[in-house]
């Protein structure tokens, strides 16, 4: 393939510092934000950066935060307010037409608000009146299961524990959370195979690893502090391989902001040795090729397999039956290249596999995780130093929220434990996850939607259908820091309850409080904001849950909600009694500045699985699942002709009627649905309405970069399933692949395409057709410059 211009600046370094300083100024957050940055991820009395779940590094210099962490902090510490005066100027109908970027920049939510339909505006309401409305609706539902309680992974452990307890005391397990859209295939599969659905590595393992394989992850943007660790490992001789349809430029060179000499001398570290430019959805096939070669050439750890695992014979039989032809078709990688990689795996005494959304967000998300774990087990790479499974979580406390019991399918042991400690029955039926919740909303089965953070409608598939469904409820409640689109589709009662953010102090009658989070490597860490809250009218999330519980469950509830809301030690005492691994929580969290590591049995080769051993799993889908789908749908497409979506528009089909796999990714200037800006430094674009394609493919189609292209779901005639026009943009990406930014593309994704058990939507593999807008067509209004 032709080389395309590469981004030549190192990752991080000066451009990162300049960009983040600019962001603090954009948000008019310079003073509040800068003070805050100095306190993030610091050993004593700082807050855990809300940017991502990567652990704190122990070798702290002055600042352990990254460019993108600073953007998240700037977003939270901005001085501007989205208060009643702001809403008096802008009706909700008007705000519906604002972009995610505009809503994000409207300011911090700073007083409780209620939607007044007569004025079509949010207006101020007292906290008490807000709680009364909530209680009035929730207490009068026919069943507690008519309410859905969503959590986003920003919420710290203490309020998360209270929230699940409140919801279960209310009577339902309807506790979906962002994890359903994120690392759920990881949690489900690792749980099944290793006994615990979490990373088996700790940070020190990265110092001893000899081979690190990064699957479907873009750490330069999404976990920038991980780059320092990778650069360090690389310097010590560790090989680093990225398996990704895109050559993510931020991964090639790294300039360390922690090292002033590095910055001044303009040095940078090389990081990734090789990129395996896989086809979208091709990971199972690649991993099958690796495992097949290792097994057939007897390069595996037979002792470990015999002593510690179960299911090897079935896996072996299956591997032997897979053909190299299918492996190549499914992965897009040649047998020779796969064997070369297999030899590296065979020779490595310590291998870590890390992964992100490129692995989980597919129909075969669970198969992907299963094959990564299978590979580690074949090589005996669990339970030794420098090796293991390292899923890299997204939200800073998404892992902790689950540990605290935010789960629509709770384990029986959790329910039993809650019943024992709180002496009341807990609901036993499984609740609704994100997908089932969205469907129930659309079917009119839900009458109330309560969210602790997040942007449910926009993050989920089928965004506009969820927004429409939200207008049919009796009650929607948003506990949040910033305005977003989910809040703009009011039901009969619509409330915004503004909360204190991670960077801000929580001071109660019991004094100043700190909370805790669990990072991606099972470390429980304290977090304490340092700033005065943006407004006196904010409450902590814990206090808001305490108040909702008091109003809804009534004063005779024997759980001391108000005491918990004002004294987080009391919450931690309950957590210590109810949640495994948190014994003596208050003592242990104070013993070390860095908190404590939760016991992970698989690290000690103890397997809490059904068989009592580590479990090999055979994939459920054929390894050519995505590739075959493309061949078949391509044929269909030929016979059916073009989609009707474009009937009356001046649109040109691609010269070849073929289908593409579309993947959706994050830009360098967003945190999930919070859009900070339009720059994607590494991918060299300053707009978000882009479609990335390899230059050779653009040429082959006879198209040009800068052309306007419509993208539509191959299998749908529905207008909503068409996105565009997007601007064709060059990118070093696999041949059958195109990419665009999340969340603008989320109407292309339907609620039925998801992994079977974890039910995580297939955001990363969407079969689409592309059509270019003709010159002179109505849609040629973009400016190419
Ligand atoms: N600054 C910033 N930080 C963040 C976030 C943010 O939005 N902004 N979000 C947070 C959250 S919640 C999460 S979950 C994480 C997400 O962190 P990532 O997992 O790094 O997120 P994505 O941008 O979704 O990108 C995933 C990568 O998968 C690749 N990919 C796509 N399809 C495939 C495939 O089929 N196979 C393989 N092997 N790769 C594929 C894409 O090219 C891309 O490089 O980041 C967290 N941190
Ligand atoms: N197409 C596509 N869709 C995806 C993905 C993808 O890769 N592609 N990724 C998926 C993934 S991995 C995830 S995790 C989800 C994200 O889904 P969510 O977690 O629901 O979305 P966010 O954009 O992180 O939520 C942002 C909102 O959280 C609120 N917030 C911020 N900080 C706080 C706080 O401290 N407390 C409270 N109470 N509220 C706060 C603000 O109001 C802000 O607007 O999106 C998923 N959707
Ligand atoms: Mo995520």
Helix content: 25-40%
Mean pLDDT: 90
What is the CA–CA distance across the termini? 26 Å
Overall structural class, as computed from helix and strand content, comes to: alpha/beta
Summarize the main sheet.
7 strands, mixed
Family: Belongs to the prokaryotic molybdopterin-containing oxidoreductase family.
Keywords: 4Fe-4S, Iron, Iron-sulfur, Metal-binding, Molybdenum, Oxidoreductase
Protein name: Molybdopterin-dependent oxidoreductase alpha subunit
Cofactor: [4Fe-4S] cluster; Mo-bis(molybdopterin guanine dinucleotide)
Please explain how this structure is put together:
This protein has 785 residues and is of the alpha/beta class. It folds into four domains: 11-77, no CATH class; 82-179 and 402-524 and 535-586, 3-Layer(aba) Sandwich (Rossmann fold), CATH 3.40.50.740; 184-391, Dimethylsulfoxide Reductase, domain 2 (3-Layer(aba) Sandwich), CATH 3.40.228; 625-780, Barwin-like endoglucanases, CATH 2.40.40. 36% of the residues lie in helices and 16% in strands. It has 31 helices and 32 strands. A hairpin with a 2-residue loop joins strand 26 and strand 27 (674-675). Helix 1 (13-26) runs parallel beside helix 3 and helix 8 (157-170) runs parallel beside helix 26. The longest helix is centred in the last third of the chain and has 16 residues, at 625-640. The protein starts with 10 loop residues before the first strand and ends in a 12-residue tail after the last strand. Mean pLDDT is 90; it is low at 635-651 and 777-785. One ligand MGD is lined by residues 51-52, 68, 182, 215-218, 221-223, 243-246, 248, 278, 280-281, 283, 356-358, 394-395, 663, 665-666, 670-672, 764.
